[in-house]
């Protein structure tokens, strides 16, 4: 059953999502500043803490220009949080990767983000799984 974009329930859900996103970004920017990082630097550091990533993939993931990513990685590298290394699969490609200090900073940053964690902690595991699945579905990532 299709819903109208002007359906009151749809409008309420859109407003609530907007409020959650705005509060998350506000806290994220504050947490990043406590580590002398911009929000964009913190997002790149968090992404790289999972695994080394080619620069172009960082730009795709963050939906920004590759030149912006180069500047962000340059600043993180100058602080000793990130390093560039050749991709073992294709030595022409440069991977950005966290240093041990970068991984530690990313972990401390993640640990300081209470806004998202605390409200989610009030939901049961079943409710969190349902919310995750609904969000994935909204993003077109639903598991078939």
UniProtKB/TrEMBL annotation:
Top-level lineage group: Bacteria
SMART domains to which the protein is assigned, alphabetical: HTH_MARR (SM00347)
InterPro entries: HTH_MarR-typ, MarR/SlyA-like, Tscrpt_reg_MarR-type_CS, WH-like_DNA-bd_sf, WH_DNA-bd_sf
PROSITE patterns registered for this protein in UniProt: HTH_MARR_1, HTH_MARR_2
Keyword DNA-binding in record: yes
Stored SUPFAM superfamilies: Winged helix' DNA-binding domain
Signal peptide range: none
Pfam families named among the record's database cross-references: MarR (PF01047)
Occurrences of domain HTH marR-type (ranges): 10-140
UniProt keyword Membrane present: no
Gene3D superfamilies for the chain: Winged helix-like DNA-binding domain superfamily/Winged helix DNA-binding domain
Keywords assigned: DNA-binding, Transcription, Transcription regulation
Protein name: MarR family winged helix-turn-helix transcriptional regulator
Protein source organism: Streptomyces lateritius
Lineage of origin: Bacteria, Bacillati, Actinomycetota, Actinomycetes, Kitasatosporales
């Amino acid at each position: 059953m299709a819903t109208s974009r002007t359906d009151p329930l749809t409008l309420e859900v859109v407003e609530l999502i907007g409020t959650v996103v705005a509060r998350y970004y506000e806290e994220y920017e504050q947490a990043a500043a406590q580590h002398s990082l911009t929000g964009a630097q913190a997002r790149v550091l968090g992404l790289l803490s999972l695994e080394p990533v080619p620069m172009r993939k960082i730009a795709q993931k963050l939906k920004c220009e590759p030149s912006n990513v180069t500047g962000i990685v340059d600043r993180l590298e100058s602080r000793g949080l990130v390093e560039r290394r050749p991709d073992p699969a294709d030595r022409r490609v440069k991977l950005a990767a966290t240093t041990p200090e970068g991984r530690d900073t990313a972990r401390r940053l993640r640990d300081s983000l209470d806004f998202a964690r605390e409200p989610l902690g009030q939901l049961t595991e079943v409710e969190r799984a349902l919310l995750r699945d609904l969000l994935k579905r909204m993003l077109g990532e639903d598991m078939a």
